[in-house]
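From: lab user (bench 3)
To: helpdesk
Subject: output format question, protein + 5-amino-5-deoxy-1-O-phosphono-D-mannitol

Hello, I'm new to running complex predictions and I'm not sure whether the block I got back is the full result or only part of it. Here's what I submitted:
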Amino acid sequence: MCGIIGLVSKREVSSTLLEGLKRLEYRGYDSSGIATINNKKIERVRSKGNLSFLEEKLANISLPGKIGIGHTRWATHGSPEEKNAHPHITNKVAVVHNGIIENNNQLRNQLIEAGVKFSSDTDTEVVCHIITSYINSGLNAYDSIRATMNDVKGSYAFGVLILNEPDKLFAVRGGSPLAIGSARNENFIGSDTYSLSAYSDNITYLKDGDVAVIENDSFRVFDYSNSSVKREKQSIIESVSLSEKGIFKHFMSKEIHEQPEVIAKSLSNYIDMDKGVLNIPSLPYDFSTITNVTLVACGSSYYAGLIARDWFEKFTNVKVDVEIASEFRYREPPMVSNGLTIFISQSGETADTLAALKHCKSRGQKTISIVNVGDSSMCRDSDASLKIYAGPEIGVASTKAFTCQLVVLACLAIKIGTSNGSLSKEQEKEYVKSLLSIPRLISNTLDKEDEIIDLAHDLSNITTTLYLGRGQMYPVAMEGALKLKEISYVHAEGYPAGEMKHGPIALLEKDLPIFMIAPSNSLYEKTVSNLYEVIARDASVILLTDNEGLHNIGLIKNKIKTFLVDETDIISAPFVYTLPNQLIAYHIALLKGTDVDQPRNLAKSVTVE
Ligand code: M6R
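Helpdesk reply: Thanks, we reran it on our side. This is the complete output you should expect:
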């Protein structure tokens, strides 16, 4: 997952490459670097840590050159040290890489036996040495790259500079995304549209097996058979200017507070506001014939799928499975001919989800992607795509994308339900009304942020916690635990409240904080029974519920802390109960002083397996 940028121009490139890398930092920020060709030499500046460290170095070291490549890294092979930062270079070649070379060890051993000295622990350096050895054997630059592609196994996108072709930038795609953006007198390469959109109003996506030879005024693309091919040039329509934090200290906080607005925007794209009914763009399927729905995703997007399972089951009466993409793609689950598989992803680039999508397509499944990044690989590879309209999500922890995914999933479940006759028009209107109430309900929760801040102060020293819930509140609990884990580094688990007694109850001890999520719905009483079991073991409960829930809690009211939200229903509950969990995670992280927007070891877009 790493971000690649490259530029060949008539002007100096290093400052533009640095700006481009800032747009790719969401893909990784363990280390970064830039290389240029200048005066018949490859020059390079690299730094450990996020881009601010590289920026600081570049303020003191000049890096001249009108052609260059840059990289921001999420470590796979080799720890996040400067020696492992890209670009990797020899005296003739510089390479930046996104992906994983699976036969790295074997190739590295062969090179070592041939006398090559390595200066990093990365798989990328292997690529750099192989290209160099082909150049040394007399092959030209293009043929050396092609020959190297035959040697390496895995998924990759490379940006390559070759000293004896100082005016040409080479772009290689073999499983990881890479695109070309053109502007006057210069051409760029970038891992995504966002990195290119500041410089170019058009984009050309490479396909797997492509090598592009790029000069400042033109480029050519060759496919796996070395035939010159024309790849479609698309305009970059959407404005993806980098969001500013505005009055907020972190993007995550801003994105939490944006939710009423972006959810309303998302709703307006799928609902006819005047008529109070769904208005979903036409999709290439007859939903009345769908017999199975499979939801596939990773991380928070997977939890969104688990929440949506309830809606799909209740509204459509078809069988629903929810799958973790990295597990699903390596199983051989039977697939029925009228199965619909839905892929949920903020980035639309998550490698595991993308691979699962390709697998399902090859097995004749109907595919829909639900994505935030509209021109992402998933969007292009699926039969149909529904955007969630959350706007750019910069914080690594997913917040507004998660709730906007829920919007689209709820609408789709209602749509399939009405199409196959499981839901009446009246029910559709009732659920749409509930959807439309969500921006107001979550605004009410955001207004109580001060209460959460107090709670966070009480909890700032916790080292472990459990989030418990039943039904849809179980995945809401898992999402809450994930938020806390990823940004505050506090151990947390989301667990089905009713399953506690089968093991995890052994963890309970005096004052262990437990979040109980209990809206006053049909599962309320069962959840409260579990709450009593927790209290009986002297753990310290924070109850998330509504007024009625608090009223019905009985004698233990004074033994627990409570956070109250508005009354909810089957549609609104997962949204409304997600908000306090996001805020709690954020404020605990703030008190712990962690890097909220760029938590350690993570990246926004996970483009490796
Ligand atoms: O871009 P995707 O939605 O496919 O990403 C999936 C996960 O990597 C993502 O949700 C991750 O779990 C987030 N960091 C959660 O906050």
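A quick orientation on your result: The pocket of 5-amino-5-deoxy-1-O-phosphono-D-mannitol is lined by residues 298-301, 345-347, 350, 353, 396-398, 482, 486, 605-606 (CB under 6 Å). Let us know if anything else is unclear.
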